[in-house]
Write a structure and sequence with these properties.
Elements: H1 9-15, E1 23-26, H2 33-42, E2 61-65, H3 69-78, E3 87-90, H4 97-104, E4 109-115, H5 120-124, H6 150-156, H7 159-170, H8 175-188, H9 194-203, H10 207-210, H11 218-229, H12 231-245, E5 246-256, H13 259-273, E6 293-295, H14 305-310, E7 318-324
Parallel strand pairs: 1-2, 1-4, 2-3, 4-5
Antiparallel strand pairs: 5-7, 6-7
Length: about 325
């Protein structure tokens, strides 16, 4: 059972321009809300494959990725038996999209969705240690098979490395003070859980920030989580891979939750939407560069008042969509 509420669900599904029979990738399965909606549209699972031919009326296929094996397991258990024939579940990070599609023998797909945020199941689960709201072991890994954990970063990274992480991935202006607090604390004992880390951060920022609307440990936890899972690096790899996997007319929709992610998506879309780069005074084009995509959302779509009232976590979500030409 999932407690997750999918963000920008209606907007993202509509933006993908889905039709029956399509092959669609949900690159970040999470709680599975987007995937369930995709399944409703792309094919009639009641029809046997032998009755279907061509694009019209064929069975659609959903390929859902997640590095978190627990998310895969929960989704598999939650969907109807008749829908399972339309689903391929891949326990892998979305950065491996190209390689995993190649393994499946799939050259091109019709649409790709990626919701870069964490699901509520992951945020509120005690086994991951992602949230400072619960006292959990410092872990933060999506992929439980990888070696790097939040605990290793907090206890073993040098002062310079920790400052880099907090400044680069958390945009934390009190990074130096927080890191010094971490170093001083770990001289006595290792930092093992989220409560310890949150208290160290709170003790090393000015008083007015401790009393603010946003918890003072928010940026530090974000930064460490991004470092653990190589999230920005994965996004940098994923976007061009996704565009390369789409057939002409196929759409890529990405939901991001903070400025660092949104900046990467925006820049990658613009880079691929750019055509000729020759100087304006050239009589003819010499660069031979043509646009690979057209941007569907000139400005990112955001949640409306109704969704924000029902799901406050949607407040920072931004949806950008492009279409392969």
């Amino acid at each position: 059972m999932t407690i997750h509420k999918s963000v920008l669900l209606k907007e993202s599904i509509e933006a993908l321009n889905l039709k029956e029979g399509m092959i669609v990738v949900d690159a970040t399965l999470g709680g599975g809300g987007h995937s369930r909606e995709i399944l409703k549209i792309i094919g009639d699972s009641s029809l046997p494959a032998a009755c279907l031919s061509g694009r019209q009326g064929r069975q659609g296929k959903l390929i859902a990725f997640d590095a978190d094996a627990l998310a895969i397991e929960k989704f598999q258990a939650s969907i109807k038996k008749e829908d399972k024939k339309n689903v391929i579940l891949v326990n892998a990070n979305f950065r491996n999209l190209e390689k995993e599609l190649e393994k499946l023998g799939i050259e091109k797909v019709d649409a790709i969705l990626a919701d870069i945020g964490y699901s509520s199941d992951q945020l509120e689960g005690t086994e991951r240690g992602i949230s400072f709201q619960l006292d959990s072991p410092l872990d933060m890994r999506f992929d439980q098979n990888q070696e790097l954990t939040a605990r290793k970063i907090v206890n073993e990274y040098s002062e310079e490395e920790l400052e880099r992480v907090l400044r680069e991935f958390g945009e934390e202006k009190f990074a130096r003070n927080i890191v010094r607090g971490i170093l001083k604390y770990r001289e006595k004992k290792s930092i093992k859980n989220t409560k310890e880390l949150a208290e160290i951060v709170s003790a090393h920022v000015p008083g007015k920030y401790r009393r603010g609307k946003i918890h003072p440990a928010t940026k530090t936890f974000q930064a460490i989580r991004i470092e653990v899972n190589r999230e920005l690096e994965s996004l940098e790899i994923f976007v061009p891979s996704a565009l390369g996997a789409l057939r002409s007319g196929g759409r890529l929709a990405i939901i991001s939750f903070h400025s660092l992610e949104d900046r990467i998506v925006k820049e990658k879309f613009r880079e691929n939407a750019r055509g000729c780069i020759c100087p304006k005074d050239f009589p003819v084009c010499l660069c031979q560069k043509t646009a690979k995509v057209k941007i569907i959302t000139k400005r990112p779509l955001t949640s409306g008042a109704t969704e924000l009232a029902e799901n406050p976590r949607a407040r920072s979500a931004k949806l950008r969509v492009c279409e392969v030409v």
